[in-house]
Amino acid sequence: MSDSSDWLERxxxxxxxxxxxxxxxERLPLVPIARGDGxxxxxxxxxxxxxxxxxxxxxLFGHGHPxxxxxxxxxxxxxxxxxxxxxxxxxxxxxxxxxxELSGLGHAFYGSDGASATEIALKMSFHxxxxxxxxxxxxxxxxxxxxxxxxxxxxSVTDVPLFSATYAELTHKGLRVPTPDARLALPGESAxxxxxRAASALENVLAKRHGEIAALILEPLxxxxxxxxxxHPDYLKRARAACDRYGVHLIADEIAVGFxxxxxxxxxxxxxxxxxxxxLSKGITGGFLPLSCVLTTDSVYDAFYDDDVTRGFLHSHxxxxxxxxxxxxxAVLDLFEQEDVIAANRDKAExxxxxxxxxxxxxxxxxxxxxxxxxxxxxxxxxxxxxQAFFSAMLEKxxxxxxxxxxxxxxxxxxxxxxxxxxxxxxxxETLSSLxxxxxxxxxxxxxx
Length: 449
Ligand SMILES: *Cc1c(COP(=O)(O)O)cnc(C)c1O
Known about the structure:
By secondary structure, the chain is α/β, with parallel strands linked by helices. The chain has helices spanning 4-14, 54-57, 66-76, 90-103, 114-131, 152-156, 161-164, 191-209, 234-246, 298-302, 323-338, 341-355, 357-360, 386-396, 418-434, and strands at 33-37, 40-43, 48-51, 107-111, 139-143, 175-177, 213-218, 222-223, 229-230, 249-253, 277-280, 292-296, 365-371, 374-379, 399-400, 407-410.
C-alpha cells in the first residue's frame, strides 16, 4: 500500500492527464484509484465510488470481471502479440467471424482506439470512391454536436467547439447538418417530428452536393459527448435511404453505443438498417484493453481487392488486432450469449427508470431521457461551475459521475444492481437539493465529457 497523497503529487508532476486543464488540479485533487471490483472503484484509503460512467463508457460488466480476466490470462500463456500484416492468429479470426455474424458486415479492420476507427472509416470511404474513379467525393457530412474522436481527421467531423475550435486551421472542412436531438422539439412536436425535420435538411444537402460527398458519419440514437442527446430511430431510416439514393456511404459510429448500451446489441438494429461502415471500440473488450474495429461490406471490400497494391488499404497500427485484446472481446461476446445480457438489461432498465421517477419529476430537472442503459437529464441552473460542483458533491457520496455541462447522465456497468442504483438516485437527489443552483459567481469551468 502506498500513501495516496504521494501518488497524487507524482501524477501531477509526471502525467499529463487527458481532457484536462492541468492547472485546475491545484484546487481539485485527482482521485487515486487503487483497485476496482464490479461497479465499484476503491481509493487507497478504502473509500469506494460507484462507477456510474463505466470509466468513460468502456466498462460493460464491471471491474475485474473474472471471465474476461481469465480469457486474457489464458491468451497470455500462448501469444501476447504478433503483427497482423502477413500473419494471422486465432483470436483475430474468431472475433472477425463472430462480429460479421452479429453485424451482417463481413470484413473487420482493427485499430487500437475509437479515434483510429473513425480515421479508418473516413479513409476507407474516400479510397473506395477513388478506386471507383470518383476521387472528387472527398467531403464528409456530420451532425451538429457530433463527436467522433480527437485525432485531426476525427476532429474534422466532430462538432464540440471546446475540442475542435483551437485546431480549426488543421482540420478539413466538411458539411454539417442539423442534429435530430429530441430536446429541440418545438411546442407540440414529437421526437419523430424533430427527426423528420433534421432528415429533410440532410436530404437537401445530399441532393445538392452528393457529387463531392463520400460519407455521412453519425452516432446512432445517442450523441454521447453532446450530453447524451437522444433521438428517434426514424432519423436513421431516412438517413440510410438518402445515402442509398445519392450514392453516399453511411458510417455508424457505435464506439459509445455499441454492445448493448442502447438496448440492442447495436443501436442501428432499432432502425432496422445496416451501415456501410460500423465503428466499434470502448465496450468491445469490456473496458480491459484498447481495441477498435471497423466492419464493412463485401462491396466496399471488393473495391480494394486488386493486383494493384495502391488500390489496397495501406493503413496500419502497430497493435492492430492484438491477441490479448481480441481474446477479451471474445469473452465479452460469450457473456452476451451465455447470460442473455440484452434481455436482462431490458428488465433492469425498466426497474431503474422507475427508481428515477423522483428525479424525472424534480423541479430543477429538464428533459429527463432514457435509452437502454443510458439515462440523462439537464439541470436548470445558472452556475457556470455546475458540472464541477456536482462531480465533487457526488464523489463525497461515493458516486463517480461526470456531468457534461448541465447534462447529468448515468451510464453504469451492466452488473449494477438495484441497491446501487437506488444509492445513485438518492445521492443525486441530495446533491440537487444541497447544491446552490442559482448564482454564477463562480469562475466558468469548461464542461468536459
Ligand atoms: C469515445 C468516442 C470516440 C473516440 O474514441 P477514443 O477511444 O476516445 O479515441 C469516437 N466516437 C464516439 C461516439 C465516442 O464516444
